[in-house]
Amino acid sequence: GNRSPDANGDNESDKKRVRRPYHAKTFKVEISFATKVPMYAIANALRGQETENFQEAVRVLDIILRQHAAKQGCLLVRQNFFHNDPKNFADVGGGVLGCRGFHSSFRATQSGLSLNIDVSTTMIIQPGPVVDFLISNQNVRDPFSLDWTKAKRTLKNLRVKTHPSNQEFKICGLSEVPCKELTY
Prior knowledge:
5 helices, 27% helix
């Protein structure tokens, strides 16, 4: 095996590189109806006729809109959706991008049901290494100049996606211990 430089034992950094075997987790999922919305209520809502199930019918139509946007690969934030197209992004500085998108919902009007679409903007972190984002966000030259207290506040609850596994994680905090001293 790999040995430390003095050949007396395993190299500590090699221990950190060993991947843990993937453990499958089994989840029990139970799906139950929250409410039943009759098809006639949806048809009436589309014609603009308000019935006792009107709000539920409109909610079903809004859900269908969201699902359609999700299937097209849009980023969904509540009733807003954002296409992953470079022309929709604008650099606002500090490692942050403004992303243009749309807010959509069905609304009852005097002439029937209307699809309401408004422009919407959200902020996202520029894709790339987290350290590069922090350097840009704090406007410093290198990682040694970072204010780690500020970095901790900036990163807390941020969702990040890793490559190439494409797994998503939520940052819950930063370790006080340097990486070379961490053990798992």
